[in-house]
Each structure stands twice: as C-alpha cells, then as structure tokens.
Amino acid sequence: xxxxxxxxxxxxxxxxxxxxxxxxxxxxxxxxxxxxxxxxxxxxxxxxxxxxxxxxxxxxxxxxxxxxxxxxxxxxxxxxxxxxxxxxxxxxxxxxxxxxxxxxxxxxxxxxxxxxxxxxxxxxxxxxxxxxxxxxxxxxxxxxxxxxxxxxxxxxxxxxxxxxxxxxxxxxxxxxxxxxxxxxxxxxxxxxxxxxxxxxxxxxxxxxxxxxxxxxxxxxxxxxxxxxxxxxxxxxxxxxxxxxxxxxxxxxxxxxxxxxx
Length: 261
Ligand SMILES: C[S@@+](CC[C@H](N)C(=O)[O-])C[C@H]1O[C@@H](n2cnc3c(N)ncnc32)[C@H](O)[C@@H]1O
Fold this sequence. Notes:
binds S-adenosylmethionine, two-stranded antiparallel sheet, Rossmann fold, 9 strands, single chain, 2 domains
C-alpha cells in the first residue's frame, strides 16, 4: 500500500508494472514512507485514506483510524434499525459509522455528533465525498447529546473512547491517534456509562442502544445497560471472537419486563 501510494499506482498496477525499474526519486519516496511506518505511524495517516465497509474514507491525525472491528457495530445497527429510523451516532470521528449506516440503509436518517471540531471537519469532507448521502446525514458539533436535546431517535449507536491511560503506554502505535478518541478514564467504561445515560434521554420507548466495547468489557457494559434501564441485552463477537458490540432496548411502557412497569 505504501509503495503504491508513493508511486501513485493502484495495487493491481504494482503487479502489472512489477518489472519497471524505479527511479532514484521514486525509491527515495518509498523509503521515506517506509521509515514513517517504521516509527509506527498508521498506514492510514501516511496515505490519508482508510477503507471502512464499502467506503473509502479520508483519515487525518485528528480522528481515530476506523477499525474493522467497528464494522460489526455497523452490521448490528443495519440489521435492527426499524424502517425509516432516526439514528444518532455519538462521537462520529471520521463519520465511519454514520456514513456506513446511511450507505447501507437508504431508508434511514443519521445524525453524527462530535465534540472535536477538527474531527468533525474530517467527517464533513467524507460526507461531501459521498453526495448521495447528503440528504440523510447531518453532522453536528456537540458535547455528548447537547446539540440534539429535545429530539427523539429510534437508535443510538456509539463507538466511544474505551481505553485506560495505561493502554497508551502498552501500545506505542496509539500515540499517533487523538487521546480524546481513545481514553475514557481510569476504568475504561466511563463513556459507555455516559452514552447509556444520555441515550435513555433521547430514545423513543422501545428504541435501541448499540455500543462498541473493548476486550473484557462485556460484563461491565451489561451492568451499565441494565442500570440505565435497557433490556433485551445481547452481544456480538468480532472476527477474533471477542464480544465487540453490545445492544439493548429502552423500556416500553406496559411491557412485562419494562423497568417502568
Ligand atoms: C473511539 S472514537 C470513534 C470514532 C468513530 N465513530 C469510529 O468508530 O471510527 C470516539 C470519538 O468520540 C468523540 N468524543 C469523545 N467524547 C465525546 C463527547 N463528550 N461528545 C462527543 N464526542 C465525543 C471523540 O472525539 C472521537 O472522535
């Protein structure tokens, strides 16, 4: 990918031009990019692009590099959102979840919320690059749900920060990504609790909350969802077999297992 980027070639062209000798300038460009990767800079930062689901997204150091694990969260939302659903993505970053859900479900509208103005600018450019989604995706600068207070949604989805500060020491590659996108606090599930609390305030009765979780966080996340009044809690594993998505349903008045009944 780095050599293709340095030479301005598609990956297939690396094969069709495999026997073309490189100029000194081209070799120098390849070596410079490989040296950056040697410093653990993400490939997506070097190329400025990252594939996510069906989309090819712009990525800068202002946003989390979208991870394949998050595609599991998108799958869950795409499968369970009711027809014509209003969906909100808490902490949209590059817009990966918001844009993918809108792309895969042409009947829904999606609001992406983001506290970082710099990250939101990246999401806006990604939306501009996908004009077919423009009518159904709204991107708002917002600390939590502030910008949508008083509105009602059918689904809240979020991949919130879920690392602890010590993780940044354990995984040096993470130093290239924004700390505010990664670290939740000393426990790791602080933002899950915040999103669950805020979701309970904006969801329609019977609406769904879908969260991405980190390895080992599923028991704590179950407690958080139950404590915020969500029932019918389930999880889905990522390709490595690690529970990665957790979801639950807000209380429906009159339902037998409704905390309100
Ligand atoms: C783990 S990243 C996820 C980004 C993107 N949704 C994805 O899955 O690739 C978490 C995002 O939440 C944003 N964020 C953190 N706290 C927030 C808050 N209080 N309100 C809104 N966004 C917040 C961060 O800036 C970051 O972009």
